[in-house]
Specification:
Blueprint lengths: L1 H16 L7 H9 L20 E4 L8 E3 L2 H10 L7 E5 L5 H7 L4 E6 L2 H13 L5 E5 L12 E10 L4 H4 L2 E11 L6 E8 L2 E9 L17
Parallel strand pairs: 3-4, 3-6, 4-5, 6-7
Antiparallel strand pairs: 1-2, 7-8, 8-9
Length: 224
């Protein structure tokens, strides 16, 4: 079975990742080495390498459903961040920890933030079993980030949001990058935010339709 999953990882990278202009050698190597099937439920392992999002939680305490992001957009977003081996990374909405596992192979240290305690515990267990010793899983509100362990060279938001909260942008180190998808469905746009001289600016990178990350809904003002 493990050999079969190894073959599926190669097919995923060759058929879903390389074909969408992902050329980062360290990222491709990470995706070839991290067992994606370890981050889904036992009954979902045969689906782990399909080119679709995989539901990993129906949502806790009234929150929305959570998903393991489809490989292609995940790879494109991680490549956009240009993660360096010396970087400190904040992974916002780590879910069961798959993205954090990839980041652990690209960066110096990773803080994996999750609001769902059950998902956080699953992430801790799986990441520990895979020897991801440079990842720290913490539980807390996603829009608030984790300032106590910052600032960060890279902040990655693992789902689409209506807008990036100022609290997360404030946790960027100088020359830091934040990657997020703003907007829902086919209107989603991947954006790269960059901090230089203490000022954060952002630019549009590419269209990206990914599942929303609960907790980032914009408060709608009352209108007469």
């Amino acid at each position: 079975m493990s050999a079969d999953f190894s073959e599926r990882r190669v097919k995923m990278v060759d058929g879903q990742v390389r074909t969408t202009d992902v050329t980062s050698a360290p990222l491709i190597e990470a995706m070839l080495s991290v067992p994606r099937e370890a981050f889904v439920g036992a009954g979902q392992q045969d689906l782990a390498y399909i080119d679709e999002d995989i539901r990993i939680s129906d949502g806790a305490n009234g929150g929305g459903a959570r998903y393991l992001m489809e490989p292609s957009p995940l790879a494109k977003l991680l490549q956009l961040a240009e993660i360096d081996a010396g970087d400190s990374v904040l992974d916002v909405g780590c879910g069961t920890g798959y993205c954090a596992a990839l980041l652990s192979r690209l960066a110096r240290s990773v803080v994996a933030l999750e609001s769902d305690s059950a998902l956080a515990e699953a992430a801790k267990s799986t990441l520990s079993s895979l020897g991801c010793q440079n990842v720290t899983v913490v539980t807390g509100p996603l829009p608030q980030g984790q300032a106590a362990k910052g600032p960060y060279n890279v902040i990655f938001i693992g789902g689409s949001v209506e807008e990036v909260p100022a609290a997360l942008l404030d946790q960027l180190a100088e020359d830091g990058r934040l990657v997020a998808v703003e907007g829902r469905g086919n209107s989603g746009v991947a954006r790269l935010f960059f901090k230089a001289g203490g000022v954060v600016t952002g630019r549009r990178a590419f269209n990206a339709a990914i599942k929303p990350l609960p907790g980032f809904e914009r408060a709608h003002a009352f209108e007469f």
